[in-house]
Amino acid sequence: MADPSSYRPKPGQIPDSPGVYRFRDEHGRVIYVGKAKSLRQRLSSYFQDLAGLHPRTRTMVTTAASVEWTVVGTEVEALQLEYTWIKEYDPRFNVKYRDDKSYPYLAVTLNEEFPRVQVMRGAKKKGVRYFGPYGHAWAIRETVDLMLRVFPVRTCSAGVFKRSAQIGRPCLLGYIGKCSAPCVGRVTPEEHRELAEEFCDFMAGRTGAYIRRLEKRMQEAAEEMEYERAARLRDDIEALRRAMEKNAVVLADATDADLIAVAEDELEAAVQIFHVRGGRVRGQRGWVTDKVEAVDTAGLVEHALQQLYGEEQGDAVPKEVLVPALPDPVEPVSEWLAARRGSRVDLRIPQRGDKKDLMATVQRNAQQALALHKTKRASDLTTRSRALEEIAEALGLDSAPLRVECFDISHLQGQDVVASMVVFEDGLARKSEYRRFQIKSFEGQDDVRSMHEVVSRRFRRYIRESQKTGEWAVEEPAEAADAAEAMDDTAGPRDDNGRPKRFAYPPQLVVVDGGRPQVQAARRALDELGIADVAVCGLAKRLEEVWLPDDEDPVVLPRTSEGLYLLQRVRDEAHRFAITYQRGKRAKSMKASPLDAVAGLGESRKQALLKHFGSVKRLRSATVEQICEVPGIGRKTALAVAATLAESAPSAPAVNTATGEILEETEG
Fold first, then answer.
1. pLDDT tens digit string along 179-235?
2. In whole angstroms, how far apart are CA 201 and each of 65, 108, 194, 198?
3. Per-residue pLDDT, 444
4. At a CB cut-off of 8 Å and minimum separation 6, what does 23 contact?
5. Residue 537 pLDDT more than 90?
6. How far apart are CA 253 and CA 580, in angstroms?
7. Is 600 left (phi over 0), alpha (psi -120 to 50) or beta?
8. Which of 620, 668, 622 is nearest to 644 (CA)?
9. pLDDT at position 481, please?
């Protein structure tokens, strides 16, 4: 526990102007981001008597080891920078809303030459128009099916589209009139894009004018006695009306608004959002958060607005945003929303009428969501806390290990040796931090040496990354760093350059799958790197005994212990992750590739090369400079790839120039 006075800025250092500040812990990671109209007043409030601080604020300032700030021109700039830093650093003590499920959206890929209508989940992509979210994917498909007869936009995948273009025949939807078949040239790219934009306009709520236009065209067709065209237009109008009826009418036709409600207690808060477009509820979503910082309803609303509209532009931000409490001050938030929409946004609390009644409905949904969440989580939260406390007591730790990393080794009779690293935070798996390793330094059935290697590589790389930012003071021998760099091939999330993303901050506890030899190997790896503040233990499968590196006898936890159950879950997850990776490598090893012979070239960079060039044949004919253009491939690796492929190139057979026959090679 740090003393806030040890890093308190000197009087007069903090400017009296708007800005954004960051608290960092002893490892240099950002644990809290905040903004202020006056940095001097806001930061001074953190360094008062600890007894006068909110318990969560007190925990934050005693966890922190330093504070830094950035001055900006206006409060709107501070709001934007705060959002950017929260997205970048994912601070532990900031409000972090978690979607209670993965919502499907109706997406139109306007960034493609021939836009496609499809169901999408997950992070939003640039150049794609989204509608929703919807409660179920089938609801989207029903809506799209009704609208395709009016707006026959492409819905097929890239593979189906390309195949139809090659064979000159459209798919089934093209034959039955639910696709304009741009793949075979029935419409031009411009005509198809116009269809897609009309589809987007209709989904955005501009329905009345379009239906009136269709009705006028239907009447004109009937007057001209073109009854077939009139009948088709009549059916189109009916299909659009059926699609509209799937959304309840709640407000006036021209109303575009988002309604946000908050239900909270001292520890948690639930947010519910209704998306109203054209007077109809087009979508609903909900978030739940732990209140890890002292924040009131207005603060929760401000964070919800940041998360909801931080990535949105244009019409995705509605004309009205109705909230239960206004942020303080409200002007910067209103200006920020207006900048994202490109026009004025009315941010207010509904006072009367239909909008107030609908807000009451949203509020009831938020209260029900919070009650359901607490019912599901109450026992889990208590159990996880007890499990972590039991582990800390059994292993003699000063505090509960909030971050646990577990390593496991997997191989098939000594071949294709791999390792896995899984991460649990607060007793829950954090899969985005999982990592996989190929063991390259040796072959054979030696789990102890493999464990030493993988733990060394994990923490050696962390030290190298931390030294670049000044977050770590341990010096690593140059030859060890060079050796690690040569054999490092960690599989996991990659950055924009194709390199593995940085490891997160170190754990309080490392768990290995095995007994005392594996535990001692892991401890020895940490000692060699000068890391003494990370505890190590092992869980042996035979009797489920917990081993410590310096103890002759294992620690035996009761079979009913929640701590033992959590360690088993962590160990089993690491085993599952390692087995999955090993089986995948075994399957791929059946397909030999010339790239396998390139030293230091891992599976991810092999895939990047093949994706870039399309085939080994094209890669073989590429120059070193062209190979270097692939993200993650340096010149040294490119030279190794070119040399290896040149050696493995099949030699051209000798040919009789007179007859054209291939001559067989003979010795001598």
1. 989 998 899 999 999 889 888 877 776 666 677 777 888 888 888 888 787 887 787
2. 52, 11, 10, 5
3. 53
4. 30, 31, 32, 60, 61, 64, 66, 67, 93
5. yes
6. 53
7. left
8. 620
9. 41
- How far apart, in whole angstroms, are the C-alpha atoms of residue 155 and residue 178? 9
pLDDT at 520: 92
Structure tokens that stand for 493 in this block: 């999330």
Rounded CA gap, 599 and 583, in Å? 22
The label of the residue with tokens 């006072």 reads: 351
Q: Buried b / exposed e across 589-614, counting CB within 10 Å, b at 16+? A: eeeeebbeebeebbbbbbebbbebbe
* Cβ-contact 88, 27 below 8 angstroms: no
Buried/exposed 54-91: b ≥16 CB within 10 Å, e otherwise: eebbbbbbebbbebebeebeebbbbbbbbbebbeebeb
Both tokens of 655, joined, read: 């040919």
CA-CA distance, 257 to 275, in Å (whole number)? 6
Which residue from 147, 556, 76, 544 is spatially nearest to 336, judged by alpha carbons? 76
133: cis peptide before it, omega within 30°? yes
Cα atoms found within 13 Å of the Cα of residue 317, Cβ hemisphere only:
25
CB 105 within 8 A of CB 44: no
Question: DSSP letter at 494?
Answer: B
Residue 131, both tokens: 């509608």
**Residue the block writes with tokens 């700030």:** 69
